[in-house]
Design a protein that fits this description.
Blueprint lengths: L4 H44 L5 H26 L14 H6 L1 H35 L1 H4 L20 H36 L9 H50 L4 H29 L2 H18 L4 E6 L6 H22 L4 E8 L2 E8 L13 H10 L3 E5 L6 E8 L3
Parallel strand pairs: 1-2
Antiparallel strand pairs: 2-3, 3-5, 4-5
Amino acid sequence: MTVPVTSVRETAVRSLRAAGAATGQLVGGLGTAFLALGVLLLMAVAAVTALVGVGLLLAPLVLRALHALARRERERLARRGIDIVPPDPPPVRLRSALAGPTTRRELGWLVRHGTLGFLLGLLGALLPLCAVRDTSFPLWWWLVPEATTTTSVGIGTAHTWLDAVAAVLLGVGWTAILLGLGPGMARLQAAPARRLLAAGPDTDLSLRVAELTATRAAALDAHATELRRIERSLHDGAQNRLVSVTVLLGAARRMAARDPAGADELLERAQSAAEQALAELRSVARGILPPVLADRGLAGALSGLAADCGVPCGVEADVPERCAASVEATAYFVVAEALTNIARHSGAGRASVTARARGGRLRLLVEDDGRGGADEDDGSGLTGIRRRVAALDGTLRLTSPPGGPTVLEVDLPCGG
């Protein structure tokens, strides 16, 4: 039985992508695991100095660091496509917070992530380096001193080309381990967070249900608002133009016999009105779902928006696969509205748009060097952007201190 070459290629590409995503997740987990070790050290210092009273002063700092790190880990995993429903905020009072289930669960995660998670993250960072080092060793072994170790594990010394080529076998082994075990290692590293940083069985999920209900209501309201906008555009624009065309054509038909010159003038006016109606219909159609998304994809559509922006704007798009149509449309309108705000209100000299799709999430970053001070309540369209994003269970974060810069960060699920 012959295995199709295309199937083998697709399997290889999927394995490489999975290994790459797993490596990124492990290395990202290494960062939070290193911070977890720091919090554990701070906790140990607080426990030791509690006998002299200093530890009691450090306890609030330790708790804040613990909750902040747990929140950061949830956000990191969410960017990798692992959604974790957060628990209720812990109590403010120190004794209640220490005795609360949220703090106990986060402490359990901290110990696991600072130990096993750190080791797995370290492996995720070292395996690719070892694979590259050993696989490429024959290319540069003759440049190193004679006593230099042949392999990345410190075994053997190459004296001939054959010894150097033998190191490639170890590099292939590292690569096989990374491809075969990398995704499992990433899942193992994220398992404590899935289990301990999520809302426990004793958590009241009514707030989350209320939030989802409000999100869906806002989505329906935004949809109704969009329909009203389209209806007004058609009624006040294209419909009136077409009525004018009908009237002018009727008048021209009646004048054709007795006043040909006047009929020609009316026909020209009718043609002009028909062209304007067609342009307005195209504008309405672009407002519903821009054709450029289907023609050029999200990266090309964002480049077009940047080219039309009133200030110089750079685009960096890394979206290897197409997202759902609703997600791409939302991303397009978010960036279009943000760039419009920058051109009209920011006084910026330069802007930038970054779009990246990783782990089932699409992340947008729109930045400018303007005066800052952007506010959702000043009619700048940010409320509409937030509603569009919330309708897809996405998140929006705006940072705009007075004096700038302004950073708009949007995270959307690629599946829509």
